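Researcher: I'd like a structural prediction for the single chain below. Treat it as a standalone chain; there are no partners to consider.
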Amino acid sequence: MNLKIVRAFLVVGLTGCGASQLPEDVPNADLGATESNVIVGSVNWTSVTSLSSTSTERTRSKAVGYLSIPSVGSRCTAWLVGTDKIVTNNHCIGNSTEAVGAKVSFNYEDGVASTSRIWYDCSTFVRTWTAEDMTVLTCKPLNGYYPGQVYGKLTVAAGNAANSSAMYIVHQNCDYVASSSCVPTKKYSPGTVLNTNYSSNELSYNADTLGGSSGSPVLGAAGSTYAHLVIGLHHVGAGSNYSTNSFNVGVEATAIKARLAEIGL
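Model: Treating it as a single chain, here is the predicted structure.
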Protein backbone atom coordinates (compact mmCIF):
# COMPACT_ATOMS: atom_id res chain seq x y z
CA MET A 1 0.00 0.00 0.00
CA ASN A 2 1.36 3.42 -0.96
CA LEU A 3 2.31 5.60 2.03
CA LYS A 4 0.21 8.52 0.76
CA ILE A 5 -2.79 6.22 0.49
CA VAL A 6 -2.13 4.91 4.00
CA ARG A 7 -2.07 8.45 5.39
CA ALA A 8 -5.27 9.34 3.60
CA PHE A 9 -6.92 6.19 4.90
CA LEU A 10 -5.77 6.77 8.47
CA VAL A 11 -6.59 10.45 8.75
CA VAL A 12 -10.13 9.76 9.90
CA GLY A 13 -8.86 7.66 12.78
CA LEU A 14 -5.87 9.77 13.76
CA THR A 15 -5.83 11.46 17.13
CA GLY A 16 -6.08 15.22 17.32
CA CYS A 17 -3.20 17.63 16.91
CA GLY A 18 -2.11 20.46 19.19
CA ALA A 19 -0.40 23.79 18.66
CA SER A 20 3.07 24.51 17.34
CA GLN A 21 5.52 27.29 18.24
CA LEU A 22 5.83 26.12 21.85
CA PRO A 23 8.94 25.80 24.06
CA GLU A 24 10.87 22.54 24.06
CA ASP A 25 9.63 21.49 27.49
CA VAL A 26 5.97 21.79 26.52
CA PRO A 27 4.98 18.23 25.53
CA ASN A 28 2.66 19.01 22.63
CA ALA A 29 5.13 21.35 20.95
CA ASP A 30 5.56 18.57 18.40
CA LEU A 31 2.26 18.69 16.65
CA GLY A 32 2.96 21.38 14.09
CA ALA A 33 4.95 18.91 11.98
CA THR A 34 4.23 15.35 13.08
CA GLU A 35 1.63 12.73 12.37
CA SER A 36 -0.51 11.67 15.33
CA ASN A 37 0.37 8.53 17.24
CA VAL A 38 -1.63 6.64 19.82
CA ILE A 39 -1.58 5.05 23.25
CA VAL A 40 -2.95 1.53 22.77
CA GLY A 41 -5.20 0.56 25.66
CA SER A 42 -3.68 1.58 28.97
CA VAL A 43 -0.34 3.40 29.08
CA ASN A 44 2.47 0.86 29.08
CA TRP A 45 5.71 2.79 28.93
CA THR A 46 8.40 3.52 31.48
CA SER A 47 11.28 5.93 31.80
CA VAL A 48 14.48 4.51 30.33
CA THR A 49 16.16 5.40 33.62
CA SER A 50 14.09 2.63 35.24
CA LEU A 51 15.81 0.03 33.05
CA SER A 52 18.77 -1.86 34.46
CA SER A 53 21.92 0.16 33.80
CA THR A 54 23.58 -2.99 32.44
CA SER A 55 20.72 -4.04 30.16
CA THR A 56 21.02 -3.97 26.38
CA GLU A 57 17.77 -1.99 26.24
CA ARG A 58 19.32 0.77 28.34
CA THR A 59 22.48 0.77 26.23
CA ARG A 60 20.48 1.08 23.01
CA SER A 61 18.35 3.86 24.48
CA LYS A 62 21.37 6.13 24.78
CA ALA A 63 21.51 6.52 20.98
CA VAL A 64 17.98 7.98 20.89
CA GLY A 65 17.31 11.67 21.44
CA TYR A 66 14.92 14.59 21.58
CA LEU A 67 14.97 16.40 18.23
CA SER A 68 14.15 20.10 18.53
CA ILE A 69 12.98 21.67 15.25
CA PRO A 70 12.76 25.44 15.83
CA SER A 71 12.20 26.29 12.16
CA VAL A 72 8.69 24.84 12.42
CA GLY A 73 8.21 25.15 16.19
CA SER A 74 8.05 21.40 16.73
CA ARG A 75 9.81 18.36 18.12
CA CYS A 76 10.27 14.70 17.15
CA THR A 77 12.51 11.79 18.11
CA ALA A 78 15.75 10.87 16.30
CA TRP A 79 18.35 8.14 16.59
CA LEU A 80 21.99 7.68 15.73
CA VAL A 81 22.75 5.42 12.79
CA GLY A 82 26.38 6.49 12.54
CA THR A 83 28.99 8.48 14.43
CA ASP A 84 27.48 11.74 13.19
CA LYS A 85 24.27 10.73 11.38
CA ILE A 86 20.73 10.68 12.77
CA VAL A 87 17.49 9.32 11.35
CA THR A 88 14.04 10.87 11.83
CA ASN A 89 10.83 11.21 9.78
CA ASN A 90 10.37 13.17 6.57
CA HIS A 91 7.20 14.66 8.08
CA CYS A 92 9.35 16.01 10.93
CA ILE A 93 12.05 17.53 8.69
CA GLY A 94 11.44 17.35 4.96
CA ASN A 95 14.03 19.76 3.52
CA SER A 96 17.11 21.83 4.31
CA THR A 97 15.03 24.86 5.32
CA GLU A 98 13.22 22.88 8.00
CA ALA A 99 16.56 21.52 9.22
CA VAL A 100 17.88 24.99 10.08
CA GLY A 101 18.58 25.17 13.81
CA ALA A 102 17.76 21.50 14.43
CA LYS A 103 19.43 20.12 17.53
CA VAL A 104 19.33 16.88 19.50
CA SER A 105 19.74 16.05 23.17
CA PHE A 106 20.54 12.43 23.96
CA ASN A 107 20.37 12.96 27.74
CA TYR A 108 16.87 14.45 27.82
CA GLU A 109 15.94 11.96 30.53
CA ASP A 110 14.32 11.84 33.93
CA GLY A 111 16.68 13.08 36.62
CA VAL A 112 18.60 15.38 34.27
CA ALA A 113 17.98 19.06 34.90
CA SER A 114 17.14 21.23 31.89
CA THR A 115 20.40 23.14 32.46
CA SER A 116 22.34 19.86 32.25
CA ARG A 117 20.94 18.68 28.93
CA ILE A 118 23.59 18.43 26.24
CA TRP A 119 22.59 19.63 22.78
CA TYR A 120 24.25 18.75 19.46
CA ASP A 121 23.85 20.84 16.34
CA CYS A 122 22.25 18.40 13.87
CA SER A 123 21.11 20.95 11.32
CA THR A 124 23.01 19.65 8.28
CA PHE A 125 20.48 18.17 5.88
CA VAL A 126 21.67 15.02 4.06
CA ARG A 127 18.69 13.50 2.28
CA THR A 128 15.00 12.70 2.63
CA TRP A 129 12.70 10.02 1.21
CA THR A 130 8.99 10.73 1.10
CA ALA A 131 7.85 7.16 0.44
CA GLU A 132 9.70 5.92 3.52
CA ASP A 133 8.89 9.06 5.57
CA MET A 134 12.59 9.18 6.42
CA THR A 135 15.23 11.89 6.70
CA VAL A 136 18.93 11.76 7.57
CA LEU A 137 20.81 14.67 9.14
CA THR A 138 24.45 15.18 10.11
CA CYS A 139 25.43 16.30 13.61
CA LYS A 140 28.46 18.43 14.41
CA PRO A 141 30.94 17.43 17.11
CA LEU A 142 30.74 18.95 20.57
CA ASN A 143 33.91 19.42 22.62
CA GLY A 144 35.76 17.38 20.02
CA TYR A 145 33.41 14.37 20.01
CA TYR A 146 30.60 13.34 17.70
CA PRO A 147 27.43 12.10 19.43
CA GLY A 148 27.93 8.54 18.21
CA GLN A 149 31.29 8.45 19.97
CA VAL A 150 29.55 9.31 23.23
CA TYR A 151 26.20 7.52 22.99
CA GLY A 152 26.80 4.73 20.48
CA LYS A 153 24.65 3.98 17.44
CA LEU A 154 21.88 1.62 16.38
CA THR A 155 22.09 -1.06 13.70
CA VAL A 156 19.29 -1.76 11.23
CA ALA A 157 18.23 -5.41 10.91
CA ALA A 158 19.06 -7.28 7.71
CA GLY A 159 15.48 -8.52 7.38
CA ASN A 160 11.95 -7.76 8.51
CA ALA A 161 10.40 -8.86 11.78
CA ALA A 162 7.87 -11.68 12.04
CA ASN A 163 4.28 -11.35 13.21
CA SER A 164 3.80 -11.78 16.97
CA SER A 165 7.47 -11.14 17.70
CA ALA A 166 8.29 -8.98 20.71
CA MET A 167 9.54 -5.44 20.11
CA TYR A 168 10.06 -2.12 21.82
CA ILE A 169 10.28 1.56 20.97
CA VAL A 170 12.54 4.18 22.56
CA HIS A 171 11.11 7.68 22.17
CA GLN A 172 10.81 11.12 23.71
CA ASN A 173 7.36 11.63 25.21
CA CYS A 174 4.94 11.64 28.13
CA ASP A 175 1.20 11.19 28.49
CA TYR A 176 0.25 14.79 27.80
CA VAL A 177 -3.27 13.63 26.92
CA ALA A 178 -3.77 12.90 30.63
CA SER A 179 -1.41 15.56 31.98
CA SER A 180 -0.77 18.57 29.76
CA SER A 181 2.18 19.81 31.82
CA CYS A 182 4.24 16.61 31.70
CA VAL A 183 7.81 16.63 30.36
CA PRO A 184 8.64 14.46 27.29
CA THR A 185 11.61 12.56 28.67
CA LYS A 186 12.97 9.38 27.11
CA LYS A 187 10.61 6.40 27.35
CA TYR A 188 10.72 2.64 26.76
CA SER A 189 7.53 1.17 25.20
CA PRO A 190 7.30 -2.64 24.92
CA GLY A 191 4.89 -4.38 22.56
CA THR A 192 4.31 -6.95 19.85
CA VAL A 193 4.46 -6.87 16.06
CA LEU A 194 0.89 -7.14 14.79
CA ASN A 195 1.32 -7.22 11.02
CA THR A 196 4.69 -7.27 9.32
CA ASN A 197 2.89 -6.81 5.98
CA TYR A 198 0.73 -3.86 6.98
CA SER A 199 1.74 -2.32 3.65
CA SER A 200 4.49 -2.89 1.10
CA ASN A 201 7.06 -1.23 3.36
CA GLU A 202 5.40 -1.00 6.79
CA LEU A 203 4.73 -3.05 9.90
CA SER A 204 2.19 -2.39 12.66
CA TYR A 205 2.55 -2.96 16.42
CA ASN A 206 0.81 -2.26 19.71
CA ALA A 207 3.55 -0.34 21.55
CA ASP A 208 2.41 3.03 22.93
CA THR A 209 3.43 6.33 21.34
CA LEU A 210 2.12 9.88 20.98
CA GLY A 211 2.88 12.77 18.67
CA GLY A 212 6.54 13.60 19.29
CA SER A 213 7.45 9.91 19.16
CA SER A 214 7.62 10.25 15.38
CA GLY A 215 11.05 9.27 14.06
CA SER A 216 11.81 6.86 16.88
CA PRO A 217 13.40 3.44 16.33
CA VAL A 218 11.38 0.23 16.61
CA LEU A 219 13.67 -2.53 17.92
CA GLY A 220 13.39 -6.27 18.22
CA ALA A 221 13.08 -7.39 21.84
CA ALA A 222 15.37 -9.85 23.59
CA GLY A 223 14.83 -13.37 22.27
CA SER A 224 13.48 -12.28 18.90
CA THR A 225 15.27 -12.93 15.61
CA TYR A 226 16.49 -9.34 15.40
CA ALA A 227 17.01 -8.70 19.10
CA HIS A 228 17.98 -5.07 19.79
CA LEU A 229 18.30 -4.26 16.09
CA VAL A 230 16.15 -1.63 14.36
CA ILE A 231 13.18 -3.36 12.73
CA GLY A 232 11.24 -0.18 11.97
CA LEU A 233 11.11 3.61 11.81
CA HIS A 234 8.02 4.69 13.73
CA HIS A 235 5.88 7.32 12.03
CA VAL A 236 2.09 7.10 12.39
CA GLY A 237 -0.77 5.70 14.44
CA ALA A 238 -4.40 4.78 13.86
CA GLY A 239 -7.36 4.88 16.22
CA SER A 240 -7.99 6.85 19.38
CA ASN A 241 -5.98 7.04 22.59
CA TYR A 242 -6.61 4.36 25.25
CA SER A 243 -8.51 2.15 22.78
CA THR A 244 -7.47 -1.49 22.46
CA ASN A 245 -8.34 -1.31 18.76
CA SER A 246 -5.64 1.29 18.14
CA PHE A 247 -2.18 0.52 16.77
CA ASN A 248 0.98 2.22 15.56
CA VAL A 249 2.90 1.86 12.31
CA GLY A 250 6.53 2.09 11.19
CA VAL A 251 8.57 1.69 8.02
CA GLU A 252 10.20 -1.75 7.85
CA ALA A 253 13.91 -2.51 8.22
CA THR A 254 14.56 -3.55 4.61
CA ALA A 255 13.17 -0.23 3.32
CA ILE A 256 15.27 1.74 5.83
CA LYS A 257 18.40 -0.25 5.02
CA ALA A 258 17.98 0.25 1.26
CA ARG A 259 17.75 4.03 1.64
CA LEU A 260 20.70 4.22 4.00
CA ALA A 261 22.77 2.28 1.47
CA GLU A 262 22.12 5.04 -1.05
CA ILE A 263 24.11 7.44 1.13
CA GLY A 264 26.82 4.97 2.09
CA LEU A 265 25.46 3.91 5.49
